[in-house]
Amino acid sequence: MADIVIDTAAIYGSARSAVYNSPITNGGKPKWYDIEQQRNGKNDAWIFFVLLQLLIVLTILKLAFHNDFENLFRIFTNSNIASQIGRTTKDDITLSSVLMSTIFITTMSLFTRFIMLHFYPHSVLQNNFSIVILIFLFTFFSVVKYVSLKYIGNIFEITSTVDEYIFNLSAITRTIGISMIPILFMLYASSEKYFNFILIISLIILSIGVVMVVIRGLSTSYKLMYSSMYHFLIYICVGEILPVFLFIKLLTKTVI
Question: Domain spans of the chain?
Fold first, then answer.
């Protein structure tokens, strides 16, 4: 009598083939199980188009307003050149200044959104409309600060000093806005493991800008400190520190 060998693996494979139903042929929907999680792709293509628009505006500034673009970095690096250009430049709102301010507001709004979404991933910032709120907040505080400084200059008859401070502040913020464009591209295209490294670089850039604002501000207001230290401290608390905390308060209440 010959031994009968039963190939269990072959029988198991045939049984699987017999009961297999393809979702293509039977029209059935694929089954989802509790252990499986559906991953939805992020709809952030609009960020790329915003960054592309920033590059286009930057190119227009470089080609059409070459002198203003070059003077911007000269003002940032040299205080003497900043004083000379500030005395010869009229306090007018030009197309180049509007474009540079727009770059600053847009880049800081996008940067804030990237940072807040990293630490608060389930906040309302996931909504694409949230960028409009951030742009409104930055624009509102920028306009309020400009108007309040102009008002202080006219009331206390220190228009020249205030204009010099506004000139330096605008140049520094616009330089920061342009410098943040590569940071935004890195935040958009890089993976999460590089976030801390990019965050450190961005904080260094912002810290340099803050230090420059403080140095230039003190260089233009040291005479006011000696003449009225009390009013100078009031201005620092109300005009510089209070808007920062108020902005953080509104940010946390509206977008988180």
Answer: 48-254
